[in-house]
Amino acid sequence: ATEISFELKTPQNIRLDVLDLSGRVVRTLVNGETTRGKHSIIWDGKDKTGNDMPSGIYLYRLNTGTRNITRKMTLVR
Fold this sequence. Notes:
By secondary structure, the chain is mainly β. It is built from no helices and 6 strands.
């Protein structure tokens, strides 16, 4: 599993996606209203159909409507 941490200064409608290196959405972890404050979301390494993804480099993209943040992360099995 991989942990994704972020902080919101105000409640916002956000979308948090995990992508492969080709930019395809592997899984959407959050899609909706999220409270202000610090958040830690765990990606269990599964795709949207529940299949285990292989070890490797993935991206996560956090979209708040006003900001788009994309970062790399490593999944190790």
